[in-house]
Design brief:
Largest sheet: 9 strands, mixed
Oligomer: single chain
Structural class: alpha+beta
């Protein structure tokens, strides 16, 4: 519920995919709240979705089926679907061994198990939708400091090189884990370094992907190939996520494109035929980062600012999206009850409802790394039997599928946190 004492009800630090999605959710589900987004990159009025031309080297994100349901709820899915490649089959295997499991959308009476969408396309769709809302933007700008106030916060900015300040009832940090803002605010992150790197690139193969995502566990670490390109016809382009240690990463980056394709062929195999092209390579170190207490009075961390996962199961953004909807739901309830969105009871309820989901998702992703990392032969045989068991045992396969589809965690919960007697 708006209060003229404050410049804004909610300030969102970061206008990327997480911040923009939260802003849209609040605009459409809690319109009584005044929302301001602070984004480091300038906004281009010419960047409209209908002008979008897919690039071969576009970075992409795997969207679980549960994420589609969320975007449908926000009214954004019809736009996103125009360039979202469906994942209709998932093939999980262990290189050089017999273990494998296969998931098919038709087994779950759905069109797809998930989707692959270019990050830029999702950003354009979000910007277009937000342009028709009351959400205000400060860009290019960055939050440099925050000071607690009674029932709110003062947020200090640098906007176009000039210092500014906003008063708000709640600051939501959605600018990822690399900006340093969460550390400036005193949050302590727990980090586990996997000692590996993710190499990201788009590749072309001689055989069509047939809308199949491949998760391949090797002695050097996992790799994934996700169908990319047209949502209508099965094509030959896939998005690669390849786990490499420092030495192998340096070697790969020093190879020619043809040599990179040969190295990938040797590691992945021939399920997609010959690798004929490998696009621009991006890479980043792999770490598991969590914040035990991502909320305090007037402040909440979301997305990668609150938790960053290994990309092995493609769960990072999908987990973040569920958390954003949980936070939105608590803000909606607070607005109905004339509570401040920065009230610690409101933010504690968000953390409580989201915590089980992120703990379960972290365990699921982290266990895959531990089980399918380099291991002695007896454990390798056991995990192959486990993969084969997943393929044969309906209950186990459904559990695996629900986690892969992003519907294994808890859905946002409407909770009454106005008093101890409310439940």
């Amino acid at each position: 519920m708006a209060n003229n004492r404050w410049d804004s009800d909610v300030v969102i630090a970061g206008g990327g995919l997480a911040g923009a999605t939260l802003a849209l959710a609040l605009a459409r589900m809690v319109p009584a709240l005044r929302v301001t987004v602070v984004e480091a990159f300038p906004l281009s009025p010419d960047a409209l979705p209908e002008d979008y031309q897919p690039s071969y080297d576009a970075r992409s994100t795997a969207l679980a089926w549960g994420s589609r349901l969320i975007f449908e709820e926000l009214g954004l899915w019809p736009q996103l679907a125009a360039h979202a490649t469906p994942i209709r089959h998932i093939h999980v295997s262990d290189r050089g061994r017999f273990g494998a499991t296969r998931l098919h959308a038709e087994e779950h009476q759905q069109d797809a198990l998930g989707y692959v969408a270019d990050n830029r396309w999702m950003g354009l769709c979000l910007m277009r939708a937000l342009s028709n809302t009351a959400v205000s933007w400060r860009a290019p700008a960055a939050v440099v400091h925050m000071e607690p106030l009674v029932n709110g916060v003062r947020v200090d900015l640098e906007h176009n090189g000039e210092p500014q300040s906003l008063t708000a009832r709640c600051l939501v940090v959605a600018d990822g884990g690399r900006s340093g803002l969460r550390e400036k605010l005193g949050f302590v992150a727990r980090t586990r370094d996997y000692g590996q790197n993710a190499l990201i690139a788009n590749v072309t193969t001689s055989d069509s992907h047939q809308f199949t995502a491949y998760e391949r566990f090797t002695d050097a670490g996992p790799m994934a190939l996700l169908p990319h390109g047209s949502p209508e016809k099965p094509g030959h382009q896939s998005a690669l996520v390849w786990t490499l240690d420092d030495r192998e990463l340096e070697r790969m980056l020093g190879l020619t494109e043809q040599q990179q394709c040969q190295a990938l062929q040797q590691r992945f195999g021939w399920r997609l035929g010959r690798f004929t092209r490998m696009g621009q390579c991006h890479h980043y170190p792999l770490k598991l980062t969590t914040i035990d207490q991502p909320v305090r009075s007037g402040v909440a961390l979301v997305g990668n600012a609150a938790h960053a996962l290994h990309p092995v199961a493609g769960q990072g953004f999908n987990l973040a999206l569920r958390g954003l909807m949980t936070l939105m739901e608590q803000f909606r309830l607070a607005s109905l009850q004339h509570q401040s969105p920065g009230d610690m009871r409101v933010l504690a309820a968000y953390h409580r409802h989201h915590q089980q989901d992120w703990q379960q998702t972290v365990r699921f992703s982290d266990s895959l790394i531990r089980i399918f990392g380099a291991a002695p032969a007896p454990l390798a045989v056991a995990r192959d039997a486990g993969l084969l068991g997943l393929d044969l045992v309906p209950g186990a396969k459904r559990w695996f599928a629900r986690n892969a589809m992003g519907v294994g965690g808890r859905r946002p919960v409407v909770a009454d946190h106005s008093s101890s007697e409310s439940r």
